[in-house]
Amino acid sequence: MLKISRMDESTQMDATSGYLIQADISRNLIEVRYRGRVTAAVVKAVHEEVLNLLPQMRQGFTFLADLSSLESMELDCVADITKIMDACNAAGIGTVVRIVPDPRKDIGLNILSIIHYRRGVHVLTCQNSAEAQRAI
User: Fold this and answer.
1) What is the pLDDT of residue 113?
2) Cα–Cα–Cα angle for 9, 109, 123, nearest 5°?
3) In the chain, fewer beta carbons within 10 Å around the N or the C end?
């Protein structure tokens, strides 16, 4: 399992802001966990890391996005979120699993999914990690 963790350098005082990426090649799975107040710089870094991981994934891979520790996300993040979606779509993503405990914190991902994923990509929203692990 490959793990990549970065803190948002623009919010050094808040050590809980940032992201964690885990790629499990044997399970054909990329996991991205956001935490704290996520900036556009954080999502840009996630985009770059995901682009590096995609060549290792097989057709039909699963992408898990964990928003359970997300406090907020800047509106400027949308551009790189859609770039991540488009890159995953082009690489043959099969399933998207999102952990969103509070439906009010969906941040518009369901709408973006309709536009940026092809038909046949399964998109599931779970309330917690246990539910997401069962879905994977």
Assistant:
1) 84
2) 120
3) N
How far apart (Å, rounded) are the C-alpha atoms in residues 91 and 86?
9
**Any idea where the domains of the chain sit in the sequence?**
2-135
CA distance 77 to 60: 26
Task: Mention every residue, 6+ apart, whose C-beta is less than 8 A from residue 122.
Answer: 94, 95, 96
Alpha helices by DSSP H, listed for 1-136, are 40-53, 78-90, 109-116, 129-135
Q: Which regions of the chain are under pLDDT 70?
A: 1-16, 105, 107
pLDDT at site 4: 53
Cα gap 105→83, rounded to integer Å: 20
- pLDDT of 111: 79
Check: CB of residue 66 under 8 Å from CB of residue 97.
no
2-135 in CATH: which number? 3.30.750.24
Query: The tokens of 49 are what?
Result: 């890391």
CA angle 36–42–44, rounded 5-degree value: 150
